[in-house]
Amino acid sequence: MKKKIIIGLVLLLVIGYLGFNYVMAPPKDIRASKADISLKTDAFLAEFNSNMSDAEKKYTDKIIAIEGKISEVEDNGITIDNKVFCQLENTSQLKKGTVIKVKGLFIGYDELFELVKLDQGKVIQ
Questions:
Q1: Which of 75, 76, 86, 80 is nearest to 118 (CA)?
Q2: Answer CATH for 30-123 from 2.40.50.140, 2.60.40.1120, 3.10.350.10, 2.102.10.10
């Protein structure tokens, strides 16, 4: 009986320790990581237009590198080809109409605005 209690407590401690480390792990540094997938906006959007749910499953939590033309510059990010919004820390050097390549973490597709959203973006070209 004591042996079962001790084994149960040890298992509980191990599970608690692993759970704590998982929850308290530092966030992944997207800007320093390599892109999982690299493509142009047209190919990226074609997948969402053909089957949105499959495309979201494919790209969720992936680092995506996108190439296209800047269509809008805001304080917190840029819009590429009117269809991909990428959040960036600094947009002061970027100009509308410039062809650019950025990478960021795919966080979703906004059906209302038909806009793909990337977070923690970084200009790579």
A1: 86
A2: 2.40.50.140
| Alpha carbons 92 and 108: distance in angstroms, whole number | 25
The pTM of this model reads 0.75
Phi and psi angles of residue 57, each rounded to the nearest 5 degrees, phi first: -65, -40
Domain spans, the chain: 30-123
Write the pLDDT tens digit of every residue in 47-90: 888 888 899 899 988 999 999 999 999 989 999 999 999 999 88
Which of 93, 94, 44, 90 has its CA nearest to residue 72? 94
